[in-house]
Amino acid sequence: MPTDSATDDSSSPGVLPSRDHLPAAWRDVPVLDVVIPVHNEEKDLGRCVLRLRDHLVRTFPYPFRITVADNASVDRTPQVAAGLAASVAEVRHVRLDQKGRGRALRTVWSASDAPVLAYMDVDLSTDLNALLPLVAPLISGHSDLAIGSRLAGGSRVVRGPKREFISRTYNLILRGSLHARFSDAQCGFKAIRGDVARELLPLVEDTGWFFDTEMLVLAERAGLRIHEVPVDWVDDPDSTVHLVRTATDDLKGVWRVGRALAVGALPLDRLARPFGDDPRDRQLTGVPGGLARQLVGFCVVGALSTLFYLLLYSGFRTFTGSQAANALALLVSAVANTAANRRLTFGVRGRDRAVRHQAQGLVVFGIGLALTSGSLAALGAASGDPAHSTELAVLIAANLAATVLRFLLLRAWVFPDRRETRAAQGTRRPAYDVTHAYDVREPAYDVTSVHDTREPAYDMTPPLGTGTTTDTTTPTPHGTPIPHDDHTRNAR
Fold this sequence. Notes:
This protein is of the alpha/beta class. The protein has helices at residues 4-7, 45-59, 77-87, 101-111, 131-139, 161-177, 194-200, 211-221, 243-262, 290-317, 322-345, 354-383, 388-414, 418-426, 486-491, and strands at residues 32-38, 64-71, 91-96, 116-120, 145-149, 156-158, 189-193, 226-230, 232-234, 473-475, 481-483. Helix 10 runs antiparallel to helix 11 (322-345), helix 11 (322-345) runs antiparallel to helix 12 (354-383) and helix 12 (354-383) packs antiparallel against helix 13 (388-414). The relative contact order is 0.14.
């Protein structure tokens, strides 16, 4: 976990630590915490948890934990979960008194001390052979999040046409409305690095099924790396998910998140990496950097934009006057120019502030329009009916003058250099110590002896009367146990 000096400055860039590969000899706490959120799953819970545990014992090289997150079940799910926790060393049980998959994941992930957090649906529709490929990029430090995808190339899926249509339609909506680039938002098979979760989860508002989508959209907009794994997936015909209600809630979530992103209401800067963690921060011999690199990029973009503008102007000029053709051509080329300079010249990635940048770019466009329109007006006043070639020559000269001013405005106002600020902050931040990076001050449950690979007796008989099969205390940072609330204790 980042040190106090870093977390106190959570509103500034560089709050996330560098992505480091976990040590091969990591044994202090579980490397992986797999959360299984459940609601009224007494029939499938025991069988699925034992199957997952056996798979991890056979294939996963690090210590692990399986956490059953029971969100307000009213059947025997709490008793079954408590029985599993009592008989299987790697299993823990957390009871919540409110429904919501997102709420269950936020609660357990926020309290977990594992450096890699995952979740999967209790029906295990996703083939477990995809689990290690899912979490490996997070253990290595390559990626921030990982998702299983039923829509990626190489996936093999068995499900009915109704669910197929709904899934593909929903992901098309995400691509069209929120410009999402991940392929499958709803597959119940995801993982996230613990340090990223601690900064990202407070920004996620949804507590239900839209939780996954909101988390992925915000991560992508913040420039975090999302790894996708094609999965083998077989639909559960007994699924209790209410498709119409879920789809309605998802659409409401899309509207809410889209509006927040459009007005810049989310502090995504807190998810930036420290200066130097990105290889693009490096200065290499023979590779222009800083102002020189920006000038090269701006000139290339400017030359292409000018050609694009002239083609547009010539096309519009065939059916309208010179002033209207100039305004239309300049407007279209200005939008393309701002987008290209944003990405290629000034290195701004992700969708954060994209609308604001385009609005500022239109102000710069207005200045360019005033220069070129004024030049055309002066030419018309001087020559009366100038030739088309003369118009183009005057426009080129006016555009050159506007280009210089555009670069200065883009560099100083639209895309100010945030990396210099990050570099200054990076000199004040202590080095990231991976051995203490995942220390959680208030763990919600005892995590000692989580990887005992002995074959325990799988006693599925629910505890009777006393409720003593699981821990009823929670350690505090100072070692003083505090009791769970009566609701949790009675449920267990």
